[in-house]
Amino acid sequence: MAENQKQNYLTHPKGIMSWLLTLDHKRIGLMYLLGGIIFFFLGGLLALGMRLELAAPGNDFMSNETYNNVYTLHGAIMIFLFIIPAIPGALGNMLLPLMLGAKDVAFPRLNLASFYIYTLGALFVVYTIISGGVDTGWTFYTPYSTTSTSNVIPMTMGIFIIGFSSILTGLNFIATIHKMRIPGLTWYKLPLFVWALYGTSLVQITATPVIAITMVLLILERLLGIGIFDPALGGDPVLYQHFFWFYSHPAVYIMILPAFGIISEIIPVHSRKKIWGYKFIAFSTLSIAFIGFLVWGHHMFTSGQSVFSQIVFSFITYFVGIPTGVKIFSWILTMYKGQVSFTPPMLYALSFLFLFTIGGLTGIFLGAVALDIHLHDTYFVVAHFHYVMQGGTIIAFLGGLHHWWPKTMGTMYNQTVASICCLGVFLGFNGTFFPQFLLGLRGMPRRYATYDPQYAELHNYSSFWSGILGLSIFIAIMNLLWSLRKSNKLDPGTNPWGAMTLEWTHTSSPPHPHNFEKDPVLEHGPYDYDKVVVEPTFKK
Amino acid sequence: MDRLTEYLFPKQVSTFAADIDNLFYFIFYSSIILFAIVVFGMAYLAIKYRFKKGDEVRLTSSKDHSNILESLFFIIPLILVSITFVWGIRSYLKMIIVPDDAIEIKVTGQSWFWTFDYPDGGTTLNELVVPSNQPIKIVLSSKDVLHSFFIPVMRTKMDCLPNRYNVMWFDAQQEGVYDIFCTEYCGTGHSQMGAKVIVMKPAQYEAWVAELGSDDEDIPLDELGAKLYTKKACNTCHTLDGSALVGPSYLQTSQMWGEERVFDDGTSTIIDDNYIRSSILEPQTKIVAGYQGVMPTYQGLLNDRELDALIAFLKSLKEDSQI
């Protein structure tokens, strides 16, 4: 046992090449995490730059051109380099085989290839930034994007390349979930995080090719002057919007479904309670993934599409809301008659429920066509999608990071600092984005570098709180990194939350290089807190 | 509720504004109830069943479903969203079915100003003048990239496309001057692409239309230039105080009168009347070093007297600034 204690995937084998050429899903997951955090930091700095400029009405810190570059890069980096790849790439890679009792994903070499494709795409984006940036908005609406003199081609090329990483990861996960489960681990005994990754992967492999094709068409139009989207060449800009949102709306579910999965893990474990409505949560994931393909037109309510389309898209949009609502109620009811501990991951999960509910409910306002026409392309939309993407996905990601940190890194962070940071993130987030709902109602358009003084007070308030938000996230991540110092190692048998999924019960922390020392045998379901007592263990 | 509306929304000026705000309140209050259930439910359960110091880790309840609760969670939101959907569509139909007696005004978006063409001839820039209590049909298009025409007090907006016409309408119930914004990102000057809608009493509007385009003959050139400076949207990109916006400040150009100006291709020219004239009519041929060549041509938008007026106005700035 003593020798095994020393052997974990972090320290064995050694050497930089053993990392760069690793086929171990855990190491690949960590490399994704590192990449994701770097871009999260960069995207966050850009966001703070925008808030600084918007603190007062005029061009105080940036010219219009600079602001347009900054907001474009903020959106593109956060979406394409952080949110979409981070949860499936980092937490998904790290945990999926462990949760299934497998030694690795189905195609380990393909998995490494996905990571390098992501890196290559990221290099294109970095090149775009260094060579002068891009000013089209992350949506690349034509004909502005086909006529803009900024670096549209390297940026869209980067997105095209990263798409392949997404597709291959999705493919890999689907094969893994189908074929790599240990005996007895039937579909209904899978942890819900696995169901969430399954739904996400389905969307990744079916939707991502559409954005890839769209980006190629855009590049062809710019390079060769083929008229597809630019009316001056005989194309149609609304066609571009259809193509773009046909991917980018399902992409919202690529971003949010894994977050749902994380919340479905955190809440039962930290409430020590069987999850409420397992099957409902599992199938609602799949139904959301499916319905997500049918609602793209609600991004185009002011584009002039036909009245019939407007009505149909509004109607279907509400069908995404209902399963999502039932999920929220299920998570809350999970706490009923449980033993709820207010640990940092649980605090993030509770923040998620608060913030994501606001994000979801404000979506109802935008789904009503008549009201959307007033709110479209205003700060109301900006606030809405930040409540979903940051208040939902990023909060869940931070919660998941805190939940699985002792498992993956074998150290425990300072829990008091982590809890205070969670509170800081919660307050900072609401302070930043809630005023933006009011700005939107009053008619403040988005993507403005300067604005009418009537909006100054709310903008100023939003900017102030964004500083608190940024600082809290920064300290939260520093707190995690600070825990990595040597003196802080945990006993490999640690299971600090008393979780009962395979990654906690059948392998050490951090896990063995081959995941499990001997083939795991399934003894109970993932949330059987009514059948088995798993004592939390926390030893140095 | 009136005070809340005043706080949350811009004024309700169009006929359908109140209806849309009411739809907002319906969703708003339903959401507050649902949100309260979520937050109080969450807080209640989390606190009631919290794990206290000294508690023993034990088996917990196996209860994981309740058919009644689940049906309620399904049915109540379903009813609420059904009402919202129907209300949203009914109000929407009011917003798109244009009354037959509407006056038609053609609106053209161009980077970065708005042109308004009135039915009896006459054109204004960045100032839409309409009579009150009269349906106005707006036919939208764009000369370059996408723009979107948004009048917050009317609660309506519509994209301007370069390859087809979009239509919107409103009937203003209250005289006044209100904001118009561009809400589809269109490049450098997007945030300055604002305009005003001026709602007049019908009689006043008649008089205004009759006078449109004829009042400029009598006033001195530099005063006319000062009027055109805002009327023709020069102010979107050029300041009068020397600071650079999208283009060079008029004051700077005025102060450099007779001096040499350097362009981005390395050539240079003396600033004189002909230089200014060609910069307005063919802005892409000579681009001042340090700026982007993004100005549209004003060919056809200014007559000769108006060109003279802008040049006279620009020249006059130098003297004003010395006082």
SSE layout:
The complex is a heterodimer of chains A (540) and B (323).
Chain A: H1 2-6, H2 16-20, H3 25-54, H4 64-100, H5 108-130, H6 144-147, H7 152-179, H8 192-224, H9 237-271, H10 278-291, H11 307-334, H12 344-367, H13 369-375, H14 379-409, H15 415-441, H16 456-482, H17 502-505
Helix pairs in contact in A: 3-4, 3-5, 3-16, 4-5, 4-7, 4-8, 4-9, 4-14, 5-7, 7-8, 8-9, 8-10, 9-10, 9-12, 9-14, 10-11, 11-12, 12-14, 12-15, 14-15, 15-16
Chain B: H1 2-8, H2 17-48, H3 67-96, E1 103-110, E2 113-117, E3 123-125, E4 127-131, E5 135-142, E6 147-151, E7 156-160, E8 166-171, E9 176-182, E10 195-200, H4 202-211, H5 221-231, H6 250-255, E11 260-262, E12 268-270, H7 273-281, H8 304-322
Parallel strand pairs in B: 1-5, 4-10
Antiparallel strand pairs in B: 1-2, 2-3, 5-8, 6-7, 6-9, 9-10, 11-12
Helix pairs in contact in B: 2-3, 5-8
For this entry, give a set of tags.
heterodimer, A: 540 residues, B: 323 residues, alpha+beta, Helix Hairpins, Cytochrome Bc1 Complex, Chain D, domain 2, 3 domains, 5-stranded mixed β-sheet, 8 helices, elongated
Instruction: Enter the CATH topology name of the largest domain in chain B.
Output: Immunoglobulin-like
Uncertain runs of chain A are none
Beta content of chain B comes to 15-25%
Computed structural class of chain A: mainly alpha
Secondary-structure element order of chain B, N to C: HHHEEEEEEEEEEHHHEEHH
Number of helices of chain B: 8
Q: Report the top-level CATH class of the largest domain in chain B.
A: Mainly Beta
| Rg of chain A, Cα atoms, Å | 23 Å
Q: State the end-to-end distance of chain B.
A: 53 Å
Structure annotation, total helices of chain A: 17
CATH architecture group name of chain A: Up-down Bundle
* Rg for CA atoms of chain B: 28 Å
Give the class of chain B from helix and strand content and strand pairing: alpha+beta
Mean pLDDT of chain B: 89
Please tally the β strands of chain A and state the result: 0
Mean pLDDT of chain A: 94
Number of strands of chain B: 12
Strands in their spatial order, largest beta sheet of chain B: 3-2-1-5-8
